Amino acid sequence: MMNEFQPITRIEENDVFLKKKRAKLQKWYVNEYMTVNSDKVIPHKNIKPLNSLSNSDGIKIKRMLMQDKKLIQNESKNRLNINGNKKIENQEQKSVRETQGNTFKSEDYILNINQKNQFYLKKIFDEETLMNFNHDVKKIQYDNIKTGVDKYSILYERYVKENYRKQTYPNYDKQFSENALNGKLNLVFGDSLELLKKLPSESIQVMVTSPPYYNAREYSKWNNLDEYLDNMKEIIKECYRVLDNHRAFLFNVGDIFDNPNRLTRSTWGKERIPLGMYFINIFEEAGFKFVDDFIWDKGEVQSARHKNSFRPYPLYQYPINSYEHIFVFMKHRLDKYRYPCPICGSLKVNGNTQSEPGVQSWECKNYDCFERSKSNRGKRFSLISNIKQRNQNEENKIDEGLIQKWRRDIVKFPPVIKINSHGKNTLGHTAPFPEDIPEYAVKAFSFVGETLLDPFAGSFTSAIVAAKYGRIGIGFELHKENIIVAKKRMAQLNYNSGYKVIYYDNNELVVNKYKRRLLDFE
Ligand SMILES: C[S@@+](CC[C@H](N)C(=O)[O-])C[C@H]1O[C@@H](n2cnc3c(N)ncnc32)[C@H](O)[C@@H]1O
Ligand SMILES: [Zn+2]
Q1: Domain regions of the chain by residue span
Q2: Which atom of ligand 1 is nearest to 454's Cα?
Q3: Ligand 1 mean position to 413 CA, how many Å?
Q4: Span 199-213, pLDDT tens digits
Q5: Rg of the chain's alpha carbons, rounded to an integer?
Q6: Per-residue b/e over 202-227, b at no fewer than 16 CB within 10 Å?
Q7: pLDDT in tens, 457-474
Q8: What is the CATH number of domain 174-303+317-334+394-514?
Q9: Looking at residue 169, what is its pLDDT?
Q10: Residue 370, phi-psi category: left (phi > 0), alpha (psi -120 to 50), beta (remainder)
Q11: Does any ligand 1 atom lie closer than 6 A to the CB of residue 147?
């Protein structure tokens, strides 16, 4: 199987670039051949001495090595299936990693590429920052070039972000941010707008919420629909600043039936208000891109008022509202900072076009890069494609069930029932959404270890679900008494780990830490 190759295009020997490429393949061949040359892998039979390699040999070898890699992967998978034994898989993976570690003579690869990148780094960072960066680069540990480049890129991205913050929003509240952005689960009490203003720019990787209903008696402070929408606009603008670039905000809202209070305040002024439509406008004005609108089919709803006055005649017919929107908005701020090639780590990259509005794409111009296309183009990438690809690992894999559930843009699952069998409202005056919504936000729009914020937390469903799935879960909630429903929600959602309660008392920041959920409310 390994000796059969597809026909390859004839390559002219005098092509300078291909000669370089051939030299590289020879080098690469030495590394890679040793990597795969373990007793578990059939060694190549038709390997020629290195000095007799032609260009086409180079390409053949590359193909062959790729096939070999697949073979290794398949082999370990098969073994795992037969034995069902995880230990064996781990050991095998480890031995492959170790072999790679020993064969890559690359301890100084990252230092070298960083040296070459100094020309660009000097243009981006001031002297002190660059010194710190170079110092941190020396500490990067890696056992193959790919991991090295990934770690180098992550470090660089962190510095670029800090730089961007300094230039655009330097005066965030460091004390608050350190407490609110770290840990597992943070229940933060206060006004969302004020709290958001304390956070550094682009410090949250995913947001999900359902806003307060403008007419909700318990906490309404708006005289009419316009005041409400203006207030929401201020908050959503601040969310845009705080959300990380190229990341998503999932927004659950229903089109309500009420009086907008613009003309009259009587109950006769009730009408259908397409809140969803207004919110799309607000999000777009704040800079977000509208991406999707899931219709959440709530089935038969709890308060199903009949809308036809029991008259089966024309002009009496109105449907019972049984859906809500779950909008997906994305932030795409055009970021012209240079990012390192994900293959070789070089900053010698040229700005390509935007791969979509607001997403800058780059092409690697380092001719020593390990990857060039057949037509001699360098690796093309963007910041977001790098982040996506680098995180495709087991812990971030989305389960098939969830993918199936959200495959269509109409999804059906029941709302949270607040009234228990004794007719008692068990969850206070919040209108919690089912965990299905934040579960999707968390798993489909963030990676393990990242940070989720719900700016209108209510009973903190989103933050709890985020913490359950290995993210940092943060919620902002106006009403401190919601701590009681938050604890109930932790119990319902089987969250038993640590959390912090954060609030201000006479302008003094108070942080209470709990090792686990307290069971004192039951
Ligand atoms: C629809 S509820 C959210 C319910 C939540 N999804 C849950 O699962 O429990 C909206 C919440 O926003 C809170 N709220 C309203 N205005 C706020 C503000 N300015 N800052 C923070 N929270 C606010 C309300 O107290 C209410 O609990
Ligand atoms: Zn490159």
Answers
A1: 16-103, 106-168, 174-303+317-334+394-514
A2: 6
A3: 22
A4: 999 999 999 999 998
A5: 28
A6: bbbbbbbbbbbbbbeeeeeebeebee
A7: 999 999 999 999 999 999
A8: 3.40.50.150
A9: 97
A10: alpha
A11: no
Expressed in angstroms, the distance from the first to the final Cα of the chain is: 66
H helix intervals, 125-198: 127-138, 145-168, 174-181, 192-198
Atom of ligand 1 nearest to the CA of 219: 25
| Global confidence as pTM | 0.80
> Does 433 contact ligand 1 (Cβ within 6 A)?
yes
For residue 185, what are its two tokens?
A: 């689960």
> To test the ligand 1 pocket, which listed residue (253, 477, 488) has its Cβ within 8 A of the most ligand atoms?
477
Q: What is the pLDDT of residues 121-167, one digit of tens each?
A: 999 999 999 999 999 999 999 989 999 999 999 999 999 999 999 99
Nearest ligand to the C-alpha atom of residue 373: 2
Residue 17, φ and ψ in degrees, nearest 5: -60, -45
C-beta of residue 293 within 8 angstroms of C-beta of residue 301:
no
Dist CA 110 CA 144 (whole Å): 10
Given a contact cutoff of 8 angstroms between Cβ atoms, the answer to whether 518 and 498 are in contact is: no
Please tell me the distance from the alpha carbon of residue 419 to that of residue 459, in angstroms, as a whole number.
16
Sheet bearing 349-356, strands edge to edge: 349-356, 359-364, 380-382
Q: How far is CA 294 from the centre of its chain?
A: 19
Q: What is the mean pLDDT of the chain?
A: 82
Q: Find out whether 89 and 80 touch, Cβ atoms under 8 Å.
A: yes
